Amino acid sequence: MTDPRSAPAVASRVRALLERDGWTQRRFAAAIGLDETKLSKSLAGRRRFAAAELVSIADVTGETVNRLLHGRDDARTHTAVPAGAAASSASSPSSSDGTPAGAGAGTHGARRTRRRILDAAWRLIADHGYHRVRTADVARECGTSPAAIHYHFPTRSQLLDEALRHNVKLAFDRQVAELGEITDPHRRLLQLIDLQLPQGELLRREWSIWIQVWAESAIDPARRELYWDSYDRWYRSVLMTLQDGAATGVFVAGRAEPLAHQLTALIDGLGIQVMAGTPGTGPAEMRAVLHDFIDRAVLAAPGHPSAETDRTENG
Q1: Which residue ranges does the record annotate as region Disordered (predicted)?
Q2: What is the pTM of this model?
Q3: Could you tell me the residue range of the domain that residue 54 belongs to?
């Protein structure tokens, strides 16, 4: 049986996406920021796509890294699949009007327009705040008309909802791409934390969206179901890793759920401090506090080899 993660299998799926959406190799290489020669080798199955490249491909095509790697959006990996209201409509193979993928060029055009609007709205809301962003600002940012914005997102509130779903998809894709081959649960947990630190433009924007959704959910009960489902995906990813570690004897047994609650709450609080520019805080300090918690509360035997290796690699 062919390995669904093999280079030829992944290449076949990416080639199908290029054909589906009418991409030339040159334009697609530019869109995902990859050298055209490397793309050509990867599409021929002679070179594996790197994790960051898979994330870019998923973002540009609206697919998930899970589908690119395994042929299914819901394939079981080391990270939880978005469910319920958090399932990203941007990653659906249907256009915004429900037309199945492959139903014609108009469908692909609508998908690209919707993605361009969502990308612009996501950036603007993250950088300037939900209440400061107008429909006209989004239209100007992505070079379309306010009418096009209203067609794809009838209300401004829907833009924030979709921005949160976009956050969920970004994190899901990144984790599937980066964590899939890390077999040691301790290393995987440390990498999962690194993938969540508010450092760099992309992650700081994700955190900005999360903080705004938390604030909106506190005063708007109608938004809470989407928030709960979105946060549940992150919580389940942490919980799965803790359960794997407990099952292999790396982490303490019988405490996966309370530890998942404690760890995610600690990450939230530290992330907010970093985003607020609290003196003495930053991504490095946040990482150190989280590693200390894991060493003291999570590891079954302090001094697990991967802890020492990680400290060396991160200075």
Answers
A1: 80-112
A2: 0.85
A3: 1-58
